[in-house]
Amino acid sequence: MRERLNVSIQSASLILVAAGLAWVVWSNDTTMKDMLTYLIILILLIEGLSLFLIGKVYPESHTTFKTGILASLLILFGVKIMVPDLFIPLTITVFAINFMYNFYTNGKRRQGTFKRKTGNKLKTR
């Protein structure tokens, strides 16, 4: 059940990003930087919720990668202040990497090969 909810959350985040970018194109009120800032905040919340829901089900590598994505989204706020010319391309790159990884994990989940392995990490003889 949590995995299906996770897929729905990931789909909602993709729709939000597409809608936000479409809003910038057709609206003259908001700038691209402002919309990307709002989207970063929304994606941070969505990815945090997703990580909370399925952190114990998916492998440790998934948790580590998603934590890296969350950290990179937070770092983008600093990039916006220090190097504003790189903010838009880096933000789009982070979003693209995140969504490509989400599609990858959803495909692996459907195959049934993307599960946390149970076992004792410290084996004694």
What does this entry show, briefly?
The protein has helices at residues 2-26, 32-54, 60-82, 84-111. It is mainly α. The model has no long low-confidence stretch (mean pLDDT 81).
Alpha-carbon distance between the two ends: 38 Å
Decide which structural class fits the backbone. Answer: mainly alpha
Instruction: List how many beta strands DSSP finds.
Output: 0
Shape: elongated
Largest sheet: none
Provide a descriptive summary of the structure in words.
By secondary structure, the protein is mainly alpha-helical. The chain has helices spanning 2-26, 32-54, 60-82, 84-111. The chain is elongated and about 60 Å long.
List the helices and strands and how they pair.
Blueprint: H1 2-26, H2 32-54, H3 60-82, H4 84-111
Summary keywords:
125 residues, mainly alpha, elongated
